[in-house]
Amino acid sequence: MSTPVRGETAAGVFAIRRARRGWAMMVCMRIDEIAHFRALAAEGHLALAAETLGVSQSTLSRSLARLEADAGVELFDRRRGHLELNQYGEILLAHASRAEAELETARARIDALRDPAAGIVSLAYVSSFGSWLLPRVVSEYRSLFPDIRFALRGGTADTVLGALREGSADLAFLSPDPRDPDIEWVPLTAERLVLGVPDGHPLATRAEASFADLTEAELVALRPGSGLRTIADAYFAAHGEVLSPVIEVTELSTLRALVRDGVGVALIPDTPAEPGIVAVPLADEAQRVIGLARNRTRSQSAAAEQFARFVREELTAI
User: Before 176, cis peptide (omega within 30)?
Assistant: First the structure.
């Protein structure tokens, strides 16, 4: 038997021990015992509670005996076959009610995850896909499954990959292929890359731009870590050169603004025409392949799995 520490009263020590015993009891309670106990408290009679639950009286009696054995006290006062909660039972009932409410919440959340037509899909994407790819896919999918919710997160390719690895994203639109053994990447579609130049630039009237044209121009680019920069670096490396931009930025919108204002030229996706920027095709074509990625090491909700199937099967038709 432990000795009280200085400053503890006997009543305080006993209260602590009762609390510890009560906590241990709640840990040991089975889910069905919580329901049994609450029915007994509500009906006040073994036969009535058994009828309400659809179990035998002997099953209910054994369940109550286990609870009282675990608690070390009687939870009901017995009066001529009637059961009336005592002070110990009142305490347990308050905690058991909260526990049952939490279990119901857990069941509801699990059911939502199991329902492919509802729930939440956490989707990460390279920021430059946010102006065209993402709205198209999400809009089309929610027209089919209006109860689906999305948690969207944009960023650089490195940020998106990190979200997949840590589990904060179920799926991701990502480019290029991360070549990570833990990440499954399925190619979906491709964007042609062009040389973006400002209106009035000497290359603006050309039918195409050669690699030599790029090396002679002042280039602006995204910072390393972005998917587009990785592709641009690879394009230069394939020609035996290293990309050395005069300015590096973090956002594609900023990159386009620099091109529009004549600060430099840049390799950019061939998206719809933008005022002030001329898209000059490259003589040796370059492209950005966009894929759907997921973490192989993490389980997927039914909603995420169904969305992934939709994207893989339907993207080319959107």
Answer: yes
